[in-house]
Inverse folding.
């Protein structure tokens, strides 16, 4: 399937650039036909997709740069993103502080500490354990400190501050995409859907959790492809 | 020399934490005795120190966390800092865009492209060359693009936008430290002094380039130690 949702024969595959994003395009094929219109909010380990869809139209931007400019692709996710790239400044002890510009801790560490995720799949920045104490050590290093210097309460507050910044970024862009295309409902997907719920609740918008709609929601692109093949057979 | 500028005998060295920052403390010893008061703005490859000094007083914060909170330590420099940690959002094509949260390009790339630095000492993120074209490729990746997608003019503008963010951050904190201690002049050091000049000129404050004051300015800590030893001998 190419970027325009056209099914291609093997010999037609010439422009690989048009295929690069085929995964979410196939997902949209499924969503458009089953839910007519909406915004797909798919928060993954590394990136967040905020993709508008309406059956019969192609609303989404078609390459990564245009998607970033349109607020449809955010290059942060709920596992692999370095905290230094989440917040260039963060609230701490009543002031604003710039965290260390190093690969010390990742979003998986804050969501691990805050109890939002269980045993996560990606590597840790320092190659050490994924338990709460090690995660807290890594987060403390973002302020050039260690666990004892800050203590558990302050590290938890710091994690909450990072989470706020990430939620704000997603919220701002979901609102923007919804307004751009006059769409009023959201479909949540991805391992970061716990963030998506908070975003929708703060925006006071209706949302559907895709994993409640279909058990195979992780295979959305395949569902879309199957549906496309089926439609073509009609 | 410990964090309080006391020369220690070998046997007195018990608290290594008090020695960690001895380098800038020794530099201050030299500066206080030769220039009485000022703010040392030392922009290095990885971090930026903004340290107030006044002969006979200890104005500076004494550990990294307190220094960060006081705006006296910024964890970004002019070579090694990932661009994703410099700007969480950047002006581009009239809008705001969040660059990729990856270790694609560093500050050395932007100052290389902008002609501010020559052959720099640190490694590149992708292990490839340090010429302008390779630097531009790396910077383009920050927007999930390549050189051809953006073109040279747009990449240069992007570099200028990153430089603006870094200058603003330094400027804000230099102003803050100068006001906190009612000091009106700056002493510039470090390989990033080209940024320091811009900061001072925008703040309209008097500055002295330490490399014009002494040829061995890279050895400021040693000068400070020598002076301290000399004073003790008096």
């Amino acid at each position: 399937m190419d970027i325009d949702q056209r099914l291609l024969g093997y010999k037609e595959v010439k422009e690989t650039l048009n295929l690069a994003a085929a995964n979410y395009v196939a997902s949209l094929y499924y969503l458009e036909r089953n839910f007519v219109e909406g915004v797909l909010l798919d928060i993954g380990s590394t990136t967040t997709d905020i993709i508008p869809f309406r059956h019969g139209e192609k609303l989404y931007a078609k390459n990564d740069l245009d998607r970033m400019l349109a607020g449809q692709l955010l290059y942060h996710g709920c596992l692999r993103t370095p905290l230094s790239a989440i917040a260039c400044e963060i609230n701490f002890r009543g002031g604003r502080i710039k965290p260390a510009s190093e690969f010390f801790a990742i979003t998986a560490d804050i969501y691990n500490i805050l109890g939002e995720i269980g045993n996560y799949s990606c590597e840790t920045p320092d190659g050490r354990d994924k338990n709460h104490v090690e995660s807290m050590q890594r987060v403390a290093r973002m302020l050039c400190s260690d666990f004892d210097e800050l203590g558990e309460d302050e590290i938890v507050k710091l994690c909450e501050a990072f989470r706020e910044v990430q939620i704000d970024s997603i919220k701002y862009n979901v609102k923007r995409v919804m307004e751009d295309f006059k769409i009023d409902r959201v479909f949540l997907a991805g391992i970061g859907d716990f963030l998506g719920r908070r975003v929708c609740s703060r925006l006071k918008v209706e949302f559907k959790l895709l994993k409640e709609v279909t058990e195979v929601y992780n295979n959305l692109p395949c569902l879309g492809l199957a549906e496309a093949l089926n439609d073509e057979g009609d």
Observations:
- The longest helix of chain A spans residues 152-180.
- The two ends of chain A are 17 Å apart (CA to CA).
- Chain A has ten helices and seven strands.
- Chain A has a mean pLDDT of 89.
